[in-house]
Write a structure and sequence with these properties.
The structure is a homodimer.
Chain A lengths: L15 H20 L3 E2 L5 E3 L1 H6 L2 H7 L1 E4 L5 E4 L4 H10 L8 E5 L2 E3 L11 E10 L5 H16 L7 E7 H11 L4 H13 L5 H9 L7 H12 L9 H4 L2 H15 L5 E3 L13 E7 L6 E8 L14 E7 H10 L12 E6 L3 H13 L4 E3 L6 H10 L4 E6 H6 L2 E5 L4 E5 L1 H12 L4
Parallel strand pairs in A: 1-5, 8-9, 13-14, 13-15
Antiparallel strand pairs in A: 2-4, 3-4, 5-7, 6-7, 7-12, 8-10, 10-11, 11-12, 15-16, 16-17
Helix pairs in contact in A: 1-5, 6-7
């Protein structure tokens, strides 16, 4: 039987050309996260399954996880998300960690699901959290940071918006405005979470089924008012003076001061995961052909407590590489990405040993240099450099060696100049760091 | 039941302080790999189990792998090594890839084994290969590259050596000098691979059992000659003129030309994995308390062929993070690692909003800035910066804001200066890039 060469279903091979794009996404994530003072951490990709059972819904544990038993009988899983791992790590060193702690990670995550656009079985996700801050300054910082990440990909504020709600406000609305008990509230929140995927009729009939008979008419009417609210000002007056609304308003004020003009209140935003406790937010792609929630986050103040230590106020978000890739493709923001190799050294005649020497000199100066050691014809060697999107070719032959001047060809523009090695170094360095 | 906070057995949590060290190792790997023109790739951490069964010994598949059945009944494994994946990727695009192809990756790998010093269940490993070069230039390049990686960690050539052998030479010795048949040869190679772990007596009695009775006396005597050979010159004359020896000699000549003076011939070096076909090499730690093989590689010209496509000459090696960490710890090469955060902004009085504004200005200039938004006392804020090994603290208060001059404190030396924001930017930039 011949071995298959395709990767496992729903996962990806990253050939160098694909990896450049992933590296570009990661680099923007890392640059902005560190710009805001976040530090990188990591955890093992295998965790005890009970870590997820304790936190997530049964659906995730039952159907969507890669779980198995190890050779010693431990029930383990490949992580479907990073939050339980980071909560575990924080809980383990609750006393030693200096707070506020700003942490980020870019884990590889796996979910057993039907692969579709924007959703594979494996993806990479920026996870970023701030631990130990009770005030809205934490949410403000994370949304500004998200905005800077979007900017780093070349996005402007017309390409996406940021939708904000509060779990506390949702709870207040469920109990006091819609007059639902806790079981009904839970059902209603689950329904709202699916609202965008349902027709208006289906949504309304499912909603009607949740209310008591005595409460149904008033409930449906009030629910319609809420779902049609386009800003907080459209909310009923009784709610407008509530503490959760005051918090959201404060957040909007600060966002505007910081020139974030694409943030909106969205009553229907609840986010599926159960652990959020206060402000939640999502970032939406506004492209007509890719209109969708891209990613989001919020405040979850009690997760660390699940490990039997004192809780820590936490705000965090996750942002996947597949989603970002779809976004930058839809909006025409894909950059031209060159090889990290600066120079491809091509030997003209039998001078390979000398070419390797020249490469050694250039490397000591910090230039990334590949030498063609295939012994093939000149034309083939040049083709390899062009196909790999290497910006420069350097030609080494007897004449060049005796003159100590070499032809450096800029491959994209097909322009060549003869120069000393020192000049080669400065030319390539200028190309790599145009701002210097 | 309370959830456990420790990571899965034999795996590691990387807290920011640990992750800095891992990032330091990765950064050196990446810098040197790209200096030689290698490009990064990646593959999924889950592969079909048959990929390993086809290539590796049964021992690995049977006992040491994390294998399980997915929900559709596929037999899959978490990768224990990267080579089968990269061979699969190369085979899949055999026709399109421009050769020679220089590829590297830093995969996370898992083996089910008893955790011990230098061997965990999971580790990260630099995998680097050159595809499409038949000549010894490929081996030369990889050994020079390995040497530059060791240098990047501050190692000198007295701290380690490079041991070199050839599978072709081993085959020749087995068949013609020791006069073993193919079954005996296989047993002898397995025995040599374990030689360093056995006492001299045990080695000799196990070796004696491999020879035929008629051949035993001569065989043992010749084997002793071989194992006591300290250089190629000690080998029997008949072997010295064989083509594999000529190849090894050529490699040594080129290594010396490139100032690699710590490479030696080692007849006993065979390396466990079955797929090597010619030159093999290993790097040994010479530290008296850590004397061991650290990592190695070699030529494997037929692996890609297992996918039913034409074979490609390949030379590669793998180098693990745990091994490197043990090496740099043993030799006192651990660097002082600071936070990627340049400045911790501390508010003196009720000026948080203004502090956030200052941070925004500095970030636009490329400075990594965290603002303490905890609302705690000054002393607590400074402590957080010190504990996180952040190099600078910047103090913002009403006086500073009106004067537009701020106190920048270098925390390791506890020296402070008052300066403009422009000066803050240049001070921190000089600190980050001392060479500019």
């Amino acid at each position: 039987m011949k071995l298959q060469t395709q990767p496992y279903k729903g996962s990806r091979d990253f050939y160098p050309i694909d990896k450049r794009l992933r590296d570009y996404i990661f680099k923007n994530w890392i640059t902005v996260a560190e710009r805001y003072g976040y530090e990188s951490y990591d955890a093992p990709i295998i965790e005890p399954t009970e870590l997820y059972r304790a936190k997530s819904g049964d659906e995730l544990v039952g159907k969507e996880m890669y779980s198995f038993t190890d050779r010693a009988g431990r029930d383990v899983s490949i992580r479907p998300e990073m939050t339980p791992s980071v909560a575990r790590m924080i809980a383990a060193r609750r006393q030693e960690i200096p707070f506020p702690a700003r942490w980020y990670s870019i884990p590889n995550l796996w979910r057993y699901q039907r692969p579709q656009r924007g959703r594979l079985r494996e993806h990479w996700q920026l996870n970023l959290d701030i631990f130990g801050v009770k005030t809205i300054d934490a949410e403000l910082e994370l949304i500004l940071l998200v905005n800077d990440i979007m900017r780093s990909f070349g996005a402007n504020q017309k390409m996406y918006d940021i939708r904000i709600n509060s779990r506390k406000l949702t709870a207040l609305i469920m109990a006091e405005y819609l007059e639902l008990d806790s079981v009904q509230s839970h059902l209603m929140i689950k329904l709202l979470d699916r609202m965008r995927k349902l027709s208006k009729d289906v949504f309304e009939s499912e909603a009607a089924a949740i209310f008591d008979e005595t409460n149904k008419k008033q409930g449906i009417s009030r629910l319609k008012k809420l779902t049609s609210a386009r800003s907080m000002g459209d909310l009923p007056e009784g709610l407008l003076s509530s503490p959760p609304i005051k918090q959201i308003q404060l957040l909007f004020t600060h966002l505007k001061e910081n020139h974030v003009n694409n943030a909106h209140f969205d009553f229907s935003l609840v986010r599926g995961l159960d652990y959020y406790t206060d402000i939640v937010f999502e970032v939406f792609d506004l492209h007509p052909e890719n209109n969708r929630s891209m990613f989001g986050g919020g405040r979850y103040d009690s997760l660390v407590g699940m490990f039997g230590v004192e809780s820590i106020p936490t705000v965090g978000f996750g942002m996947g590489d597949v989603t970002v890739l779809n976004f930058i493709e839809s909006h025409g923001l894909l950059p031209e990405l060159y090889s990290p190799t600066d120079i491809y050294v091509i030997s003209v005649g039998d001078v390979l040993r000398q070419s390797q020497g020249i490469a050694g000199i250039l490397r000591e100066e910090g230039v990334n240099v590949a030498v063609d050691i295939s012994g093939r014809k000149l034309e083939k060697q040049i083709q390899t450099a062009v196909k790999n999107n290497i910006p420069y070719a350097l030609f080494v032959g007897d004449k060049e060696l005796s003159e100590e001047r070499f032809t450096l060809k800029h491959l994209p523009s097909e322009t060549s100049h003869k120069m000393s090695l020192a000049r080669v170094v400065s030319t390539v360095s200028d190309y790599r760091n145009p701002s210097n």
